[in-house]
Specification:
This protein is of the alpha+beta class and 223 residues long. It has 6 helices and 8 strands, in the order H-E-E-E-H-H-E-H-E-E-H-H-E-E.
Length: 223
């Protein structure tokens, strides 16, 4: 057996097995995230419909690695990446004593939360933009790190101490919802809509203008 083959076997027995373990951890957390989103939706929906029965709040299961939390005009798409990641060498996670002491704790699975307009999904407006609200990183020990908007950018930075549980997951989802509710759709500058081609008009008839909260909306093909 060559030295290279020995190294390959060693790599598979160590790093590949580690990544598989992290993948399973992340998938377990993702399933719990889905359950918590459903719990929130079922708790909020009855209170919202008391004022307006047309306001929808629900969790939609899309696939093994994606689900949507819809609340009226906003939808947060939670998506689990199937690969495992390392942070860059100078990142605070990589530089932490926790990871320096045990380097395998520096490998993470990743779950992302994107804010889309609900109409973007309903009408399949493929050019519409979603905005990243948060990324949840899970390691082999089940510890986690979050980067994101507002409080989610500073609440969960201590990987050595952060452990995901039901209450923490609920709080993370609630923070993404609060940010999405405050993140409004802007009216675009009038000059951006001053003229459109017949092709763009026909495109609008089929799926609407490409829209995102910070784009306002724009005609298909415009810069």
């Amino acid at each position: 057996m060559s030295e290279q083959i020995v190294d390959i076997i060693s790599g598979l027995n160590n790093k590949a097995a580690l990544k598989q373990h992290i993948y399973r951890n992340t998938l377990t957390i993702f399933k719990e995230l889905k359950k918590c989103a459903k719990e929130i939706a079922e708790g909020v929906a009855p209170e919202v419909v008391k004022k307006d029965q047309n306001v929808e709040v629900e969790m939609r299961d899309i696939s093994e690695f994606e689900f949507h939390l819809k609340f009226s005009g906003d939808t947060i798409a939670f998506i689990m990446h199937t690969n495992i990641f390392l942070f860059p060498p100078q990142h605070e996670v990589t530089e932490s004593a926790y990871v320096k002491k045990t380097p395998e704790y520096g490998y993470f699975g990743m779950i992302q939360a994107y804010n889309f307009l609900s109409d973007s999904i309903k009408y399949s407006r493929l050019h519409d933009v979603g905005y990243l609200l948060a990324r949840i990183f899970v390691n082999a020990e089940g510890h986690f790190y979050v980067d994101g908007q507002r409080q989610l950018d500073f609440l969960y930075k201590d990987v050595a101490k952060n452990e995901l549980n039901h209450d923490v997951i609920i709080k993370i989802i609630e923070q993404t919802m609060l940010y999405a509710l405050d993140f409004d759709l802007y009216v675009p500058p009038i000059n951006a809509m001053a003229e459109i081609t017949l092709e763009q008009k026909n495109y609008f008839n089929n799926v609407g203008f490409a829209t995102g909260k910070r784009l306002g909306f724009k005609s298909n093909g415009s810069k």
